[in-house]
Amino acid sequence: MADIFDERRRGLEEDYFRRKDRESLQRLREHLREGAQEAGAPVTMDCPRCSGKLHEDTFEDVTIDRCDTCHGIWLDTGELENILGHEKPANQWLKAFWPGRTRE
User: Fold this and answer.
1) Residue 60: domain span
2) Is residue 83 domain-shared with residue 36, that is, in the same domain?
3) Which of 8, 30, 41, 57 could form a disulfide with 36, with the two C-beta atoms 3.0–4.6 Å apart?
4) In angstroms, rounded to a whole number, what is the distance separating the alpha carbons of residues 10 and 17?
5) Burial of 47 (0-12, 13-18, 19+ CB in 10 A)
6) Is the pLDDT of residue 16 over 90?
7) Which helix (H) or strand (E) holds 4?
């Protein structure tokens, strides 16, 4: 009977330290991000698709995130609408793919 309680206690202890480690890593990442922003260095994030890093790039006055490994492009909230808004009338191929997103 004591073995069951010992295992449970060890499991709870491991969970506690895992949670504390996660919180410490999050605080460290935020501190590094703030330090990079103060120094003027670009802040990079991990790519959601691969193990690469996302770097900010500008496309038609809209800031997008591009992966340096898989070359994927990631858009934040509202960035697709901004790109569609900058699209020239003679070159409206994006509106064919996203007809509900146009401002017409």
Assistant:
1) 44-104
2) no
3) 41
4) 11
5) buried
6) yes
7) helix 2-39
Query: What proportions of the chain, in percent to the nearest 5, are helix, strand and coil?
Result: 50, 15, 30
Interatomic CA distance for residues 60 and 73, integer angstroms: 14
pTM of whole model > 0.70?
A: no
The alpha carbon of 13 is separated from its chain's Cα centroid by a whole number of angstroms, namely 31
User: What's the pLDDT at 17?
Assistant: 92
Q: 86: Cβ–Cβ under 8 A, 6 or more apart, which residues?
A: 60, 61, 62
Residue 15 · residue 8 · CB < 8 Å: no
Query: Which pair of structure tokens corresponds to residue 35?
Result: 């330090």
